[in-house]
From TrEMBL:
It comes from Neoarthrinium moseri. Residues 42-65 have a biased composition (Basic and acidic residues). Residues 15-26 have a biased composition (Basic residues). PANTHER family: SIGMA-70 REGION 2 FAMILY PROTEIN (PTHR37540:SF10), TRANSCRIPTION FACTOR (ACR-2), PUTATIVE-RELATED-RELATED (PTHR37540). This is Uncharacterized protein. The lineage of its organism: Eukaryota, Fungi, Dikarya, Ascomycota, Pezizomycotina. It holds the Pfam family Fungal_trans_2. Residues 1-70 are annotated as: Disordered. Keywords: Nucleus.
Amino acid sequence: MAGFEFVNVTDPKEVKKHSSKIRRHVMKDIGKARRKPKTRDRRQTKIIDEQPKIGEEDDSRPADRAEDEVEKDLRSYIHKMTTAGVRNDGHISQMVYPFEMTEDRIQLARYMIEEARHVYRPFRFAWLSVGLTDAASWNITLANAALFRSRGLGAEVTEYTESQEALKYYTLSLESISKRLQDPEEVGSEGLVIAVTGFICHDNSVGNFERMNDHLKGLKHIVEKRGGLEKLSSPFLRLMISWHDLCAATYLNASPYFKVPEGSLTEIDTGDDTMYLDVLLRDWDFQCPSLGDIMCALKATAKVAIYVNRHGHEPNFWKDDVTIARLLGPASHEILTLEGRPLPSDSADPEYSGIAAREAFRRAALIFLADVKIRCLAGARELPRHLDAFRQISRLPLVNWTVVPELNLWAHVVAAIQEDSDERAWHVAVISGIMDALGLETGSQALDVARGVIWAESIMGEKAQALSDHIDSHRRLSALSQHLQDVPLDPLLEDFDFAQLASLEASQLGPTQC
């Protein structure tokens, strides 16, 4: 019976106290289980079962048939192009292009393939599968190639004005799109959708999200004329539009224009991995019933973490851009479509702390997803904005962060992990206060609680140790400071004139020498 502890409740007020104690007891085991295991000698490790392939779930779990079919379409669509020779420099001249390719254009295409051997850019080859089908989109692709070539191997993407050659192809594409927008027969064509998506891809690459938002508005109008996103024939095009839509919405903290496309990874069997989170969310729903809409967003984010924990160790997982897009889309969409809640001006309002916590959870989820994007080299320009927003939330006056303290602890840990030590200090102070409410003593215990909520060890594990050390240091200094304040002053010193002593010492030292 060593693993059991019986509790005796004699007063209704004690229920919450014992509930928290039980949750912490469960959390101790969950947190330890999610820590990164020590590396074992591979020579002594036997592989019993083959790991599931990237993009697939374990055979022991029922797969969603429609989702599998869309995934097959995606893989097949991209495979048609890549096996045709795009990855092989020698077959570039044999590919089918939307217009005549001069030697200069062939050289640009060749440069794209050459750079790809040294620099990974998400969706590069997958985009070619649709970019080659339309003249305007292919001109945009050539403009990007010219831009990359002018700046050198692996350089950051800039505006087309940085290269005259890139500007030439950009202008050709823009002229084509402008003419087709005036043509009633072309305005709803899939080719036009592809071309505008090419512009949106570039906007995302250079971080011009205001212009990107304008292009997305126009694209939404064009897509609606075709009957919606699902009417597009290319499954990858649907995925790309949704991905860039969510990138812009995440940066602007706005609702996305498009829904999540079919084939996204929504049916992820979480098993027992969300057991602790489910308990906390039930507690949240009980304490803040009017703010329960955040629960679906947190559950969707937890699915991302679980999928990463299961598959993140697999070879090439972090370069499987299509799977990453299918994985992050549903969670991002759930978070960004949440209705905004204004914070009451009166801190005594019953919902004041709950609304502040809800926004902290929302921002923490976006910070977590941004960390996943960074890990797969997709970039996350939105991260500084959400970290800044979280700092402002964390500094709100008179917020009771012990409303479901474990969730608030998790949110502050997620934000603190991403911060530099100077910016982290405030978060650490808040974390320490929540730890006191939970009866936790060390940074390791606090991180074990966070690990039980939403956590990807392969991404957050290394940074977590620095935060744990920071928490422990803060708590030692706080304890020392409190101890010094509690030490009584010697009665003989209470009436002593320290100012007179300092003046006497100064006169004995004589004038200060410069």
